[in-house]
Amino acid sequence: MFIFLRRASSDRAGARPYRLHVPRLRRSFALPALQSSRLTQAGLDTRLSIGKLPSMPLLRKWLAVSVIALVSTAAALADQQPSEPQTVSDVPLSPDELKNAISVDALTVPTPGEFFKAIEKGAKPNWTSQYRPPISIKSTDRAQMALNLGALIADGYIAVEAHDGQQVKNVGKDVLALAKKLSVSQSVLARGQSITQFAENNAWDQLNEELEATQNEVKKALVENRDTDLITLVSIGGWIRGTEVVTGLIIENYNPEDAKLLRQPALVSYLKGKLTQLPEKIRNDPLVQSVNSNLNGIQKMVSFPADHVPTIEEVKELNNAASKLTKEIGASE
Amino acid sequence: MIRFILMVLAAYVVMLAQCFADTDDQVAARSDVIDFAGAFQNDGFKIRDGNVFGRVSKDHPEVVAVNLYSGNSYWFTASTGQKAERLKLSVFEDNGKPVSYLPYEFSGRAAAGFSPDASGLYYVKVALQEGQPATFCLIYSYK
């Protein structure tokens, strides 16, 4: 982003513009409204034209001097400011700050939609290839229902990415059915209707938001029903299904940039930590125990150094682990 | 006696409701930060439907853990909802080292734009540079 300031000198006709360099981020980042308002506040109005004030010689001279001074400052600033994002000389975080950092599901655990958005940056993924047959949960195991609810919401994101309105509606019905079993259907009911409406109108952006809101409504209703412990399982179900889908897409069209997305050691560690905090009754649930032990293996697979690029074999291994777990979660008995 | 028990129960319910309800400060901070993040929404960023509240003072910043993806670009935004405060946001790697980001500070609002090179854990620090201790709301947008 460059702002041009006209030089106020006698040879205005051949004046070269000065550049005030405002740092910009690498990937299509822009801060137009904010930065320009900042510059305007600083008096750097680029529309100021001295030549339009012929009848006020004193004012003209004063303005000319001011602009020259301003331009000199701006030019000096331009030399100092980097073109890359600003390297801020912040003091590193102390061990205490790292230890006491706040972790909350609502910000610390990325949504499946966020995961899917990251993989869309490369070649267009074949989302429909990641559909799975509808699941039928006959069991009354609430832990299993919560895990499946998370996985189903991830299915909703896949259908939205595939721009498949009918599939969105199908998944929406399944989410509602499962929400009923968990006694959280009242809060999801209105969302379900919006999802159907948006799907019929092909409003994909709104659908993405609606799915995220649905997940949050479910979690909120679980809190109100004193089923707070199940929230972790909804997040885990969504993350496992999301990992299965993303690894599946990477296998179809392998490229190193996409493979690097799979590095999430702290996230698995956080989810496992939440599992250990669950009440003993839920922790002893056979499915939860299986999820916990399978997450140990998955944690190793996603805990690679920042400069390591997973090979296609490593991606396949992770895909197998996530697929196995998704099937186990969705098994009717 | 029954009346007394009912009154105690009613008081308990009211207190419980207040514990779970957002305070006025939180409502103001959340409303302002969503308004602020709207600027990024216009640029294609999607606001995540989730937030964290905290309380900061000059000598007590708050640090929030987030898991980011290398393909995405992020804007973290925070507000106190009060114009008198001066907030600052900064981003750190999983080991606590500062990273390069685009900062923005204005009144009780602050933002940090960041594109991670590697997926994984990062920390966002919310610090109060000037003003009285305040409640803040932090959200993020991505694209």
Summarize the structure.
With 333 residues, chain A is mainly α.
Explain this structure:
Chain A has 333 residues and is mainly α. Helices cover 62% and strands 2% of the residues of chain A. Chain A folds into two domains: 79 residues, no CATH class; 223 residues, no CATH class. Chain A has a two-stranded antiparallel sheet. In chain A, helix 6 runs antiparallel to helix 9. Chain B has 143 residues and is an alpha+beta fold. Chain B has one domain: Jelly Rolls. In chain B, strand 6 and strand 7 form a beta hairpin. About 3% of the residues of chain B have low confidence.
Report the portion of residues of chain B in β strands.
35-45%
Mean pLDDT metric of chain B: 87
* Helix content, binned percent of chain A: 55-70%
Please tell me the total number of domains of chain B: 1
C-alpha termini separation of chain A: 59 Å
| Topology of chain A as a string of helices (H) and strands (E) | EEHHHHHHHHHHHHHHH
The largest beta-sheet of chain A arranges its strands as 1-2
Count of DSSP H/I helices of chain B:
2
User: Tell me about the biggest sheet of chain A?
Assistant: 2 strands, antiparallel
CATH architecture of chain B: Sandwich
Task: List the SSEs and their pairings.
The complex is a heterodimer of chains A (333) and B (143).
Chain A (H helix, E strand, L loop, with lengths): L1 E4 L12 E4 L10 H10 L15 H24 L14 H5 L5 H4 L3 H8 L22 H20 L3 H17 L3 H16 L3 H21 L4 H24 L3 H4 L5 H12 L3 H4 L2 H17 L9 H19 L3
Antiparallel strand pairs in A: 1-2
Helix pairs in contact in A: 5-10, 6-7, 6-9, 6-10, 7-8, 8-9, 9-10, 10-15, 12-14, 14-15
Chain B lengths: L1 H19 L3 H18 L4 E2 L4 E5 L5 E7 L5 E6 L6 E7 L9 E5 L2 E6 L5 E11 L3 E9 L1
Antiparallel strand pairs in B: 1-9, 2-9, 3-8, 4-7, 4-9, 5-8, 6-7
